């Protein structure tokens, strides 16, 4: 089998022209280089060069091997540099899974800063999963998962990215607009606009309505955030969003924010990852940027 060292030998012989100079370039003694040349020719069963006085001239087989060396060695060199960068966290690809609609809005505020700090890292965003985000993580389809749900699972670790309050949004002229706080009874008379996720993943239901044994008068699932906000503005229903996202969108739509319950309804945003990956430098940097962004913004 042709080895990396064999390719370097033939490249050095061609570049230097003599056995002595090639040996010096390779930091080998002349007898050691002669031995390696003889071994390679015997192994391949063909002469790679012939002497012309003190110089060496490549044979047809030698020229073929030189062409291979000129193609392969630069690729191997680049691969070594890239692998070294991977080990230092300077280069790689970070495949980010996003498991909730507001998560994607949050991510857009983080990606720019992260890519400026880590120019050697490519980003790939995955929003659709064949099964679930956690299964995508365990099956190595993604490297990290942004999610509001902490589901304890073997080999999966979590980091808190941000903590925020959920608020109810109602049009300025909606009957609920002047309410200081939302009660389950008030929401039971309204159409609640939600993203198309399983009902057991809606905090407004699981942590607010269900304990009161009530439910909204009607649930309407909408995939587009912008359409949901337009329908809310037109009093076709009310919706629940993270307060930080509501503040951003309130620049375009004039809503009233209503606290959910006496103490408010709070949520955490997590980054899930495989336990062995928790120390990868560019993943740690993504966590740091995400947490710093959350601390310095309304989230």
Notable features of this structure?
11 helices; about 25% strand; D-Maltodextrin-Binding Protein, domain 2; about 45% helix; 12 strands; alpha/beta; Arc Repressor Mutant, subunit A; ten-stranded mixed sheet; 3 domains; two-stranded antiparallel ribbon
Q: What would you say this structure looks like, in words?
A:
The protein is an alpha/beta fold. The protein has 3 domains: 4-87, Orthogonal Bundle (Arc Repressor Mutant, subunit A); 92-161 and 269-295, 3-Layer(aba) Sandwich (D-Maltodextrin-Binding Protein, domain 2); 163-267, D-Maltodextrin-Binding Protein, domain 2 (3-Layer(aba) Sandwich). Helix content is 43%, strand content 24%. The protein has 11 helices and 12 strands. Strands 3, 4, 5, 6, 7, 8, 9, 10, 11 and 12 form a 10-stranded mixed sheet that branches. Strand 3 (92-98), helix 5 (101-117) and strand 4 (121-126) form a beta-alpha-beta unit. Helix 1 (4-16) packs across helix 4, helix 2 (19-25) packs across helix 3 and helix 5 (101-117) crosses helix 11. The longest helix is centred in the first third of the chain and has 28 residues, at 60-87. The model has no long low-confidence stretch (mean pLDDT 87).
Proper CATH architecture of the largest domain: 3-Layer(aba) Sandwich
Spatial separation of the terminal alpha carbons? 59 Å
Weakly predicted, low-confidence segments: none
Q: Would you give the CATH topology of the largest domain?
A: D-Maltodextrin-Binding Protein, domain 2
- Number of distinct beta strands: 12
Q: What is the top-level CATH class of the largest domain?
A: Alpha Beta
With helices defined by DSSP (H or I, 4 residues minimum), what is the helix count? 11
Gross morphology: rod-shaped
Class based on secondary structure composition and strand pairing: alpha/beta
Let me know the average pLDDT.
Answer: 87
Biggest sheet record: 10 strands, mixed
| SSE series | HHHEEHEHEHEEEHEHEHEHEEH
- Helicity, as a percent range: 40-55%
Radius of gyration: 31 Å
Name the CATH homologous superfamily of the largest domain.
Periplasmic binding protein-like II
Count of individual domains: 3
Q: What amount of the residues lies in strands?
A: 15-25%
């Amino acid at each position: 089998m042709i080895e990396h060292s064999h390719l370097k030998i033939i490249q050095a012989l061609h570049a230097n022209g003599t056995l002595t100079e090639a040996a010096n370039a390779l930091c080998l003694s002349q007898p050691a280089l002669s031995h390696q040349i003889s071994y390679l020719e015997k192994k391949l069963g063909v002469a790679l060069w012939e002497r012309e006085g003190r110089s060496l001239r490549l044979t047809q087989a030698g020229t073929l091997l030189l062409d291979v060396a000129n193609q392969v060695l630069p690729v191997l060199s680049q691969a070594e540099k890239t692998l070294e960068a991977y080990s230092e966290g300077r280069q790689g690809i970070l495949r980010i899974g996003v498991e909730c609609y507001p998560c994607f809005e949050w991510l857009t505020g983080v990606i720019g800063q992260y890519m400026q700090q880590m120019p050697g890292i490519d980003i790939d965003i995955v929003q659709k999963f064949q099964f679930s985000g956690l299964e995508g993580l365990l099956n190595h389809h993604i490297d990290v998962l942004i999610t509001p749900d902490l589901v304890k699972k073997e080999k999966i670790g979590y980091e808190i990215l941000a903590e925020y309050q959920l608020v109810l949004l109602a049009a300025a002229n909606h009957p609920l607009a002047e309410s200081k706080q939302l009660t389950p009874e008030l929401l039971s008379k309204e159409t609640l606009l939600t993203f198309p996720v399983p009902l057991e993943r809606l905090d407004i239901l699981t942590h607010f309505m269900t304990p009161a044994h009530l439910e909204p008068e009607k649930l309407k699932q909408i995939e587009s955030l912008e359409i949901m906000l337009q329908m809310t503005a037109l009093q076709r229903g009310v919706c629940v969003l993270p307060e930080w996202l509501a503040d951003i969108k309130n620049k375009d739509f004039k809503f009233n924010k209503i606290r959910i319950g006496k103490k408010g309804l709070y949520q955490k945003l997590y980054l899930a990852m495989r336990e062995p990956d928790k120390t990868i430098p560019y993943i740690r940097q993504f966590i740091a940027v995400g947490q710093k962004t959350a601390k310095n913004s309304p989230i």
